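Instructor's aside before we start: the two examples that follow are unrelated to each other. I chose them only because their records fit on one page, so don't look for a connection. First example below.
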Amino acid sequence: MKILVPIKRVPDPATTIKVLPDGSGIDTANIKWVINPFDEIAIEEALRIKEKQTGEVVLITIGQSTWQEQLRTGLAMGADRAILVKNESPLDSLAIARLLAKVASDEKPDLILLGKQAIDDDSNQVGQMLAEMLGWPQATFASKVEFDSNKVKVTREADGGLETVSFALPALVTTDLRLNEPRYASLPGIMKARKKELKEIPADSLGVDLAPKLKIKNLAAPSKRQAGKKVGSVAELVQVLHSEAKVI
């Protein structure tokens, strides 16, 4: 089985994010960059599938040359090869989905696994857009992935509980937190990653419309939370909720 895993480079969740004074973006100075945590889960699931069924795990990301670092991390985890679609300027979800669809049409994977969303913009769009462009069945928010012959059965987390869907390959699945626990890259894996193939493709060579359809007008940091207030009794609490908070 050939599995394509798109990944995104995002700030480390432990990093303190600062917005630029003009609100045009975030200050990237001194930020540690990592693989989007949901995409790490997708890599882990792809590796587990490969270990059970044999096959190939191919990573892909879209960004600048420095994004090779995250691809190398995925290769150190156990992926077989990687593709970097080079593009210097930021892209919206639609442009990213179009680029992934073009590469997927050339690579012809049996399964595409990617995180349900990126933790930086939380758009939760690329997987759905990509499946529609390819005309493939999809399952989002997967908490369990199983195979039966040439079909995949996915247990997905829905608002009302769990839902199980089944469909034939090729297909696309987006991963949720409870699917697995990603492995760490081992020292031998890190050494092997240096020799694995990492192919670079200029984004403008793929003949895809990259014109943004979404424009971010302004970014702002959330306002600081005000200190809480202690009350001496239930009666005082009710009075404060009524007169000050005006919620009752």
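Example two begins here.
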Amino acid sequence: MAGHQNGAMFRRALAKELRAAARRMPVVTLTGPRQSGKTTLVRQAFPRHAFVSLERPDERSRAREDPLGLLAGLRGGVILDEVQRAPELLSYVQDAVDQDRRPGRFILTGSQNLLLMEGISQTLAGRTAILRLLPLTLAELTGRKSVDPRNLDSTPRSVSPPKLDPWAAIWAGFYPRIHDQGLPPDRWLADYIRTYVERDLRDVLRVLDLDAFERFVRLAAARTGQELNLTALAADAGVSQPTAQAWITALRIGFIVTLLPPHHANFRKRLRKRPRLHFLDTGLVCYLLGIHTPALLKQHPLRGGIFESFVIGEIIKGFENAGREAPLFFWRDATGHELDGLMDLGDRLVPVEVKSGVTVAADSVDALRWWTGLPGNRNKRGVLVHGGDRTLSLHGFTVLPWFLK
């Protein structure tokens, strides 16, 4: 496990964009999974703002019973932490900023994706910047310069690898507290899942059978890095397809999983329509699958899918830390040709392939060569990320090590 020196704070790449958004908009909404470091980040970024934690029962009751009084008593800026616990407050925030649109007045945090929650109809459209803080990137964990995913396909240059075993890092996952306090990942993640199921899930769904839900999550974890077949997943979990759909949505709302949608560029090929499923933290996957050590992960039959989710997660975090939604897709045609990822950067498409092996074999870039060779495809560059430390160019494609530099 990668420890962090003396419990020191991590420097979060999103901090710069967070402050910039607060200079621009009256409301900034910071969402992300529970324990991704949102409260720490906003309190560091806005030390003069008043702080109201809606996790506290007394503050939550006050927000629900006397929202006008709560807001009226606050002078200057305010942080409303875990705002999904009192969603009715958002209407009063909207009214307040319509009367006074000074930038940076309200900083909201939420451990659920407020845009996906049916219960929160008021999304402060036009009044808020929405940013997402996911668990640590590898660069944040190791104190290195952040990776800009838009430059992954540029001319490769070798840099020294981090002093970190890749499988130990992927096994531990990237929630800050594990590393900040040197906690055993499996124990911390067990508590994390229990808190998520017992607390956040009940805000989103009325799940009557928690055992069935936990079984469903473990079965989903075994499919990370794979095309999502909801019918098969529902059958294996012993639930209906609508239930499986609702539970996948709940996992997306809690930032546990993400779905890469299929890209529409067909280049005269008939495309498959299913998305690809990725868990956003690999430590969580290892816990759910009962992978108890990094050595076991290194030999595990699902290590390829877990490694792929790690790489996809790093790319997604890289975009989110720059204040952008990741333009990341999945591509597969009816004949079985596929790409692990496809970045749509506007001026070009960048295919991404992921291989967990240390050796870069001659055929490692075959999928990239096949896709770039399709008739009508003007995109000729691509990226292969592998499990070793080497950086090179192969058949005109950029080959990057597991740390993406």
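The chain has two domains: 5-132, 138-400.
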